[in-house]
């Protein structure tokens, strides 16, 4: 099981207190952080190299991103 980065988990509550609810996950990789943030109510924009994005097609987490 892949878990969210500890720094993302820790700072997500800080971002909410600042009403910073739009997030860019640059270098999204497997989208572990993007999916977590979307589930937490953020609007997430995930970006990566075209080859990686192609690998993610059909990923269940894409419906949130």
Secondary-structure topology with pairs:
Blueprint: H1 6-17, E1 22-26, H2 32-39, E2 43-47, H3 50-56
Parallel strand pairs: 1-2
Question: Features of this protein?
Answer:
two-stranded parallel sheet; 42% helix; 3 helices; single chain; 65 residues; alpha+beta; 2 strands
What report would you give on this structure?
There is one protein chain. The chain has 65 residues and is an alpha+beta fold. The protein is 42% helix and 15% strand. The chain has one domain (6-64). It contains 3 helices and 2 strands; from the N terminus they run H-E-H-E-H. It is elongated and about 35 Å long.
Low-confidence stretches: none
The overall number of domains is 1
What is the straight-line distance between the termini?
Answer: 20 Å
Total number of helices: 3
Query: What would you report as the Rg, rounded to the nearest angstrom?
Result: 12 Å
Strand fraction equals 15-25%
Silhouette: elongated
Please give the order of strands in the largest beta sheet.
1-2
Q: How do the helices and strands follow one another from N- to C-terminus?
A: HEHEH
Give the fraction of residues assigned to helices.
40-55%
Q: What's the average pLDDT?
A: 88
Q: Give the strand tally.
A: 2
Give the structural class. Answer: alpha+beta
Tell me about the biggest sheet?
2 strands, parallel
């Amino acid at each position: 099981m892949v878990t969210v980065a500890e720094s993302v988990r820790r700072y997500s509550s800080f971002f909410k207190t600042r009403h910073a609810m739009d997030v860019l996950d640059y270098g999204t990789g497997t989208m572990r952080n993007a999916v977590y943030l979307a589930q937490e109510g953020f609007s997430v924009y995930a970006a990566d190299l075209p080859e990686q994005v192609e690998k993610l097609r059909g990923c269940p987490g894409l419906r949130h991103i």
